[in-house]
Design goal:
mainly beta, Jelly Rolls, Endonuclease I-creI, nine-stranded mixed beta sheet, 3 helices
Length: about 290
């Protein structure tokens, strides 16, 4: 097992970010990541730079260079453990932090929610208790060009905020540049679909990396015991995002030997299409694995 210790974190996915570690396929890495605000939110009176374009969030561990990874491969990330490193998390709620809202709403303000983590539950002060379900919001590789903020998502992955990225799940990413340049960030104690807010928290993540050579994919994929999933950012036009998700599931089921029209029929009957992230939107196309062989 390799331990990644990091003091400075990039806030972008970019081929120009120098790797902080080189690993071989099959290796396991353990690293600790700060919460999405890098510890800047300390209590309910904490305030961040506004508008959002001035705020940095989702500091990424990495980039991690995976030896042998080349364009057209899949980078396989298996999440072996997610251990929360605090007994308190935070969430930020308010109107969408865009320039128009900031201009028209003076003074702009929002609510910081601090929650204790106790007995396997997130304890909200209004009496709501939610089971702790640790997940990782950001996982991605260097994109085709430019530097994409770690708060955004795309074909490279990034800020997916899919609550199924938990212990036991596997994420498949399209390798675009040599080495892949993997980055991870944004641990949650809980993260509902749509993510109007989440309970952000520092965590220690244990994961392994591997490669599937020469099998290119268009969008990130996720797999757990129950589902195969494909995520895409073809929103905000929802039909376009759903059609993209259907197409990707058809391709994945085809890899299991299922004819595309039979795959389409199965998807029409049992697939699910939750929006994992509201802004910017990320759609998660899910197919129950129990129906693959039926």
């Amino acid at each position: 097992m390799r331990k990644l210790e990091q003091k400075e974190y990039p806030y972008t996915f970019s081929a120009k970010n120098p790797p902080v570690m080189r690993v071989k396929p099959g290796e396991t890495i353990v690293t600790s990541i700060p919460d999405c605000w890098n510890g800047e939110v300390k209590n309910e009176k904490s305030r961040l730079p506004l508008p959002q374009s001035q705020a940095l969030f989702n500091p990424c561990c990495g980039p991690i260079y995976v030896e042998g990874a080349a364009k057209g491969d899949q980078l396989v990330v298996r999440f072996l453990d997610i251990k929360l490193d605090s007994d308190e998390g935070n969430g930020v709620t308010g109107l969408p932090l865009d320039d128009l809202t900031y201009t028209l709403t003076k003074p702009y303000d929002y609510t910081v929610i601090m929650c204790k983590i106790k007995d396997g539950k997130v304890m909200f002060k209004n009496g709501i208790e939610v089971p702790v379900t640790p997940s990782v919001g950001v996982v991605g590789v260097a994109p085709l060009y430019g530097a994409i903020p770690s708060g955004d998502a795309g074909r490279h992955g990034g800020n997916l905020d899919v609550p199924e990225i938990r212990k036991g799940s596997t994420v498949y990413l399209p390798v675009i540049h040599e080495g892949g340049l993997l980055g991870l960030a944004d641990a949650h104690a809980m993260d509902p679909n749509g993510e109007l807010t989440a309970m952000d928290i520092p965590a220690t993540i244990t994961f392994s990396v591997d490669l599937i050579k020469g099998k290119e994919i268009n969008w990130p994929r996720i797999e757990n015991e129950e589902y195969i999933m494909s995520v895409n950012t073809n929103s905000p036009i929802v039909p376009s995002a759903v059609n993209c998700g259907i197409s990707e599931l058809i391709l994945w089921l085809g890899e299991h030997g299922i004819d595309m029209w039979k795959a389409w029929e199965k998807i029409a009957l049992v697939a699910e299409f939750p929006i994992s992230r509201f802004n910017p939107p990320v759609l998660n196309a899910k197919f129950p694995k129990k129906y693959i062989k039926t």
